[in-house]
């Protein structure tokens, strides 16, 4: 696809970008290279390729769901200034 200065101005206006007249040629060249890259990617032969969900074959190590720390809730509640029914009591901050 050929890109001219008018196309660059139009794309810049749609993208709400300010492109100075002195930068038009540089932006046009960059856009042309990007489109050429997409053309190359579209032409790549991807037949007989399996899709990859992740580039590495990773397996999550599972462990048994067992508590490995003792229950210290009563001990920690005893440190609070006020507690009731297993909950910390805090002052009301919202009216």
SSE pattern = HHHEE
Which structural class fits the helix and strand makeup? mainly alpha
- What's the overall average pLDDT, rounded? 90
The description of the largest β-sheet is: 2 strands, antiparallel
The first-to-last residue Cα distance is 64 Å
Radius of gyration: 31 Å
Q: Total number of helical segments?
A: 3
Largest sheet, spatial ordering of strands: 1-2
Residues in helices, as a percent range: 25-40%
Strand content: under 5%
Quick structural overview:
The protein is mainly alpha-helical and 95 residues long.
What is the element layout, followed by pairings?
Layout: H1 5-14, H2 24-43, H3 73-78, E1 83-84, E2 87-88
Antiparallel strand pairs: 1-2
InterPro entries: Asp/Glu-ADT_sf_sub_c (IPR036113), GatC (IPR003837)
Keywords: ATP-binding, Ligase, Nucleotide-binding, Protein biosynthesis
Pfam families: GatC (PF02686)
């Amino acid at each position: 696809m050929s890109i001219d200065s008018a196309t660059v101005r139009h794309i810049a206006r749609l993208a709400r970008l300010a492109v100075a007249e002195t930068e038009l040629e540089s932006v046009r060249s960059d856009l042309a290279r990007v489109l050429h890259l997409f053309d190359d990617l579209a032409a790549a032969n991807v037949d007989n390729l399996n899709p990859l969900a992740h580039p590495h074959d990773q397996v999550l190590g599972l462990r048994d769901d067992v508590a490995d720390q003792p229950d210290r809730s009563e001990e920690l509640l005893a440190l609070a200034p006020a507690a009731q029914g297993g909950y910390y009591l805090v002052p009301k901050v919202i009216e």
